[in-house]
Amino acid sequence: MVIMVIPPTSPMLITRNLLYTGITRAKKMLIIVGIEKVIEFMIENVDIKKRNTGLEYKMRRINA
User: Fold this and answer.
1) Torsion-angle region of residue 21: left (phi > 0), alpha (psi -120 to 50) or beta?
2) Could you report the per-residue pLDDT of 10-52, keeping only the tens digit for each?
3) What angle in degrees, to the nearest 10, is found between the helix axes of 36-44 and 16-25?
4) CB contact set of 40 (below 8 Å; sequence gap of 6+)
5) Count of structural domains within the chain
């Protein structure tokens, strides 16, 4: 069971990819909590942004 809360936030954060991830993680039940217009925006938002998390740098430091 997945409960996905989608607050109104920056368009960069609410993408179709995020919605797809929530949907595909749900095995038996998916509950989406949010404003309909925000969810509609997610469906239409196909922009993919490069995320600069620093994860690669941190992993290289651990393995060095």
Assistant:
1) alpha
2) 888 888 988 999 999 999 999 999 999 999 999 998 877 666 6
3) 100
4) none
5) 1
